[in-house]
Design goal:
Elements (H helix, E strand, L loop, with lengths): L6 H45 L2 H9 L20 H17 L9 H15 L13 H11 L4 H17 L12 H10 L13
């Protein structure tokens, strides 16, 4: 059919066909990235709902679940369980059942991203202990993953920037700071307080 068209028109048809092919390839790539992002958001919603569920936390903290329970995620020998990792394990177990992997273990994509970020942060010198939310490192890492749209590289950069800011401003030792007299004077004027003695117990 193209042999009946003039030269310039053949070129135009070839360019349009190539452009459409390129658009389809791009669309397929973008839709794959979009599907992964949607999956990660769904997994995050499930995990956040679980760790905010009082019953889930009671069972986890009270140790009602057997330590051999596959839904629990120990952090290490003698350490407490991580609610986020435990919820990720429950999610993985549910996904394995839904997809019928035939007994093969399945790891949720969110859990994989968390572990990848954790390894990266440990390679960068670790996460500041004072910045860990509720003693749960995975929950702290999850905050950075969510804020960067689940991009592990960007999350590592944000954590490195946070560590540098904390170090530059001596945030981890903020309770040891002694304010200059001038600032103390302003505080006393704005927030007056006084000592009235002790209570019956000597406090």
């Amino acid at each position: 059919m193209l042999k009946f068209l003039p030269g310039n028109l053949k070129l135009a048809v070839a360019v349009v066909a190539g452009w459409r092919l390129l658009q389809n390839v791009r669309r397929n790539h973008l839709s794959k990235a979009g599907r992964e992002k949607r999956l990660l958001k769904e997994e995050t919603s499930f995990v956040m709902a679980e760790i905010e569920n009082p019953e889930f936390l009671k069972e986890l903290c009270a140790g009602k679940s057997d330590s051999n329970d596959e839904n629990l995620a120990p952090l290490g020998d003698g350490e407490a369980y991580s609610p986020v990792l435990s919820a990720c394990r429950q999610l993985s177990a549910r996904q394995s059942t839904e997809r019928r992997h035939g007994g093969r273990p399945h790891t949720s994509r969110l859990s994989e991203k968390l572990q990848e970020l954790k390894r990266g942060v440990e390679a960068d010198g670790g996460f500041p202990i004072c910045a860990i939310v509720n003693g749960d490192l995975e929950r702290s890492l999850l905050r950075f993953l969510i804020s960067t749209d689940f991009d592990v590289g960007k999350a590592r950069e944000k954590i490195a920037a946070m560590k540098q800011w904390r170090e530059e401003n001596d945030i981890d030792h903020i309770l040891r700071w002694i304010l200059p007299e001038e600032k103390l004077g302003h505080l006393k004027r704005c927030m007056p307080s006084s000592h009235h003695g002790y209570d019956k117990e000597g406090h």
